[in-house]
Amino acid sequence: MNLMPFFETAVVALNHNKCAELGDRTQYIGSSDVAGCARKVYLQKTQPVTPSVSTLLKFSRGHAAEILIENIFNAAGVAHLFDTQVELEHPFYPLKAHVDFLFHSDLDGTPEHHIIEVKSVSAIPDEIYPQWSDQLSFQLGLLHLKNPKIKVGGSILAIDLNAGKMHQFNGFSYNDAVFNYLSCRALYLLDCLDEKDEARPSVSHTCSYCSYRTDCPALTLPKVQLPPEIEALAGKYAELNSTKSSAEKEMKSIRQELMDFTGPAFKGCSDTVNLIVSSVASSQVVDAEQLLQQYPDIYSEVLKERAGYTKLECKPVKPVKA
Ligand code: SF4
Fold first, then answer.
1. Ligand 1: residue whose CA is nearest its atom 7
2. What is the predicted pLDDT for the residue at 322?
3. Which of 101, 222, 249, 314 lies in the 20 to 30 Å Cα band around 167?
């Protein structure tokens, strides 16, 4: 039984069904569009392409994470407290959001509205990505427009299924100024779709799985003539760097397998290797996002200059597909 050719079409069909739940995305601007790159949003809606199977599998990982979280909530007996995939719509413009989880009360029953956006990641970031907080802030804004009298809050639940870790970036609330800014951005995207403005690219961590990357002006470099020895050195650097990245990836998965065996504490020595696993005690750090939101004056007082540095990037040129 050869599953691979079957998967090539089945994964596309799965993604198609999932997208169908969100309606025709070419007809409205969604909360993830508002937070994303204008060029990508424009091209996705005007020249849609089917992403590679590998990218589609990564998208499916996100859906799987949502189902898992829902199952966890249900198992804990709080199914009556939330709705899933709640559609929020702007009263005047074609702007929408599909909220992963909308809680109508806190877990202890205290009435409050709380949006949870689930993000499946391969490593939990130290800081929330700006695209995540923009997406959540836009959802909070649409929810506020629907029910201006209720207090709305939200959080991002990042889950790393491989490592079995999750982290809640909590403490977000409706903010007039932020929603205003994001609404202007959404209207700019609508103008781009109406060909009234230029859809400008903005680079972010999501560029790595963008289907419109090959000819993206933000990532296109000017053609130069390099001295042969410099070209050879840069090529060598790129080669070493890719070995380093693949080694890091492999180390991450081996690390997980080792830790599955050892647990959080272990000390031992075989004939060939010393194996030690120890815990670093937790410590406290200042939540910069919360400090900025709650005490903006103090935040600006404690800011300090970070020294800049020279960054070197060498990557092999990918052959252009015919
Ligand atoms: S590669 Fe990055 S900047 Fe370019 S269109 Fe895609 S998301 Fe935007």
1. 207
2. 46
3. 249
